[in-house]
Design goal:
This protein has about 80 residues and is mainly α. It has 4 helices and 2 strands. The model has no long low-confidence stretch (mean pLDDT about 85).
Length: about 80
């Protein structure tokens, strides 16, 4: 997380003045995005498990209570994990 995105690999997203997003992605780019998202979730699960070991459930409850808005990719991936 926190790396730049290559438009050729994942397509692009534009948001109009009213906030409506438009995705410009080929089927291959959609597949790349899904695969990368799954890898990011698994990396996050691994990091949580490594750092918190026996208290994973406590961490999950704490994170959900502390982060009520998932407006970033990192917050969303962590919530999924």
């Amino acid at each position: 997380m926190g790396t730049s995105v290559n438009v050729a690999d994942y397509g692009s997203l534009t948001v109009d003045d009213s906030g409506v997003p438009t995705f410009n992605m080929t089927t291959a780019q959609k597949v790349n995005a899904v695969i990368q998202g799954a890898k990011d979730v698994m990396a996050c699960v691994d990091e949580i498990g490594t750092r918190h070991q026996r208290s994973v459930l406590d961490y999950a409850v704490w994170y959900r209570e502390k982060h009520t808005c998932w407006d970033t990719y990192e917050n969303y991936i962590t919530m999924l994990a």
